[in-house]
Write a structure and sequence with these properties.
The chain is α+β, with helices and mostly antiparallel strands. The chain has one domain: Oxidoreductase, molybdopterin-binding domain (Sulfite Oxidase, Chain A, domain 2). It has ten helices and 13 strands. Strand 8 and strand 9 form a beta hairpin. Bound molecules: ligand MTE and molybdenum atom (MO). The site of molybdenum atom has 7 residues, from loops.
Length: 320
C-alpha cells in the first residue's frame, strides 16, 4: 500500500537495505586491507563512511518507513545540530566523543504511578527494536533521511502508568560542562528542554531512539538515547536524554525561551507558515549537491494522514 509520506520515487532511485548493508560489509572488508586503499583520497572518504560503534540489530518496519534513498553514514554523522558542542554543523562530530556515555541512567517521573530510574541497557530491552527510515526536517530548511533504531515512546510511557494529570511530557538533555564547550555560551538555556503534548508523545510514530544504520547512536546524533518526532521540526527531537517528566502544564522549551516569535511549542512541519526570517516551502536534502533542485516540504513532513487529527480545531498559524 502506498503510504502518504512516501514520494513517487522510481525503484531505481531507492537504495534497498540489502544494497547499503552489502556496501557496508564491503567497506568493512576493505578496512582490513588499508595498504591497498590508503593511497587514494577517495578510498579514505569511503572508509569514513562506514558505520562504527557497537552493532544494534533492529527489524525494519516498512509500514512506518519512507522509501526515499537514505543519507550516508558520513552525512548523518558530520552534519549535525547539537548546540551543547557548538553551533557549527561540524562541531558535534568533532567534540561529542568527549561525552561520558556510561554509566547512563534515565529518570522517568512526575505524573506517573510508577516512577523509575532505568539503566540504558534496560531501556534498550524494554521493547523490540524497529528500524524506521524517517526524514529529519530541520527548521533551517534542510533535511536528511535516516534509518533510526528504536521503539515507540508509548511503550515506555505505558510502563510507568501515567496518571490523569499527565498532559505533557518534558524531555531533558544531559549537561556535561567538561565535555560540552557549547554550554558556556548563552545561546540557549541549559539543559536543553523539549516537550510534547501527551497524545503526541503516545503517537506510535514518536520514536525512542537508540541507534541508526544498525549501530548504536553516535554521540553527535544523541547517544545513548534520544527522541525522534518525524512530523515536527528537528529541534523537537531532544538528544542524549537523562529525564522524561510527565506533568499537567505545557512546559516552556529551550527554543521558546530563546525566541518565542520564531519557535513555538508545536513546531509541526508546515510549508504554509514561513519562519519569520525564511520560507519553509522547500528544503535542501543534504548530500544532493549545491545545484540540486530543492524538494517541496510537505505538511507534517508527509505524515498528515497519520497526525493531522491530533490538531483538529487548532489554528496552526497561531499554534506554530
Ligand atoms: N540536546 C540537543 N538536542 C537537539 C539539538 C541540540 O542542539 N541539543 N538540536 C536539534 C535540532 S535543531 C535538530 S535539526 C536535530 C538534529 O539531529 P541530528 O544531528 O542527529 O541530525 O537535533 C535536535 N536535538
Ligand atoms: Mo534543527
Amino acid at each position: 500500500m502506498q503510504r502518504p509520506w512516501k514520494t513517487d520515487v522510481a525503484p531505481s532511485d531507492i537504495t534497498p537495505e540489502s544494497v547499503w548493508r552489502g556496501r557496508r560489509r564491503l567497506l568493512q572488508g576493505a578496512a582490513l586491507a588499508p595498504l591497498a586503499l590508503g593511497a587514494s583520497p577517495l578510498a579514505h572518504a569511503a572508509l569514513d563512511n562506514q558505520p562504527t560503534g557497537p552493532v544494534l540489530p533492529a527489524q525494519r518496519n516498512t509500514e512506518w518507513s519512507t522509501n526515499e534513498a537514505v543519507n550516508s553514514w558520513q552525512e548523518i554523522t558530520t552534519y549535525n545540530n547539537f548546540y551543547e558542542f557548538g553551533t557549527g554543523k561540524g562541531d558535534p562530530a568533532q567534540y561529542a566523543n568527549k561525552m561520558q556515555l556510561s554509566p547512563w541512567t534515565v529518570q522517568i517521573d512526575g505524573a506517573v504511578r510508577k516512577p523509575i530510574t532505568l539503566d540504558i541497557d534496560d531501556l534498550r530491552r524494554l521493547a523490540p527494536l524497529e528500524e524506521r527510515v524517517y526524514r529529519l526536517r530541520c527548521v533551517e530548511a534542510w533535511s536528511l533521511v535516516i534509518p533510526w533504531a528504536g521503539y515507540s515512546l508509548a511503550h515506555l510511557l505505558k510502563h510507568v502508568e501515567p496518571t490523569e494529570e499527565a498532559k505533557y511530557v518534558v524531555f531533558t538533555t544531559v549537561v556535561q560542562p567538561e565535555a560540552m564547550p557549547g554550554v558556556r555560551s548563552n545561546i540557549l538555556d541549559w539543559p536543553y528542554v523539549e516537550g510534547l503534548r501527551m497524545d503526541e508523545a503516545m503517537h506510535p510514530l514518536t520514536l525512542l531512539t537508540f541507534g541508526l544504520y544498525g549501530h548504536d547512536l553516535p554521540a553527535q546524533d544523541g547517544a545513548p538515547m534520544r527522541i525522534v518526532v518525524p512530523w515536527k521540526y528537528g529541534f523537537k527531537s531532544g538528544k542524549s536524554l537523562v529525564r522524561i517528566h510527565l506533568q499537567s502544564t505545557q512546559p516552556t522549551t529551550s527554543w521558546m525561551r530563546a525566541a518565542p516569535q520564531e519557535y513555538g511549542f508545536y513546531a509541526n512541519v508546515n510549508p504554509a507558515v514561513p519562519h519569520p526570517r525564511w520560507s519553509q516551502a522547500t528544503e535542501r536534502r543534504i548530500g544532493s549537491g549545491f545545484f540540486a533542485a530543492r524538494i517541496p516540504t510537505r505538511p507534517f513532513n508527509g505524515y498528515e494522514k497519520d497526525v493531522a487529527d491530533l490538531y483538529k480545531g487548532m489554528d496552526l498559524r497561531r499554534n506554530f
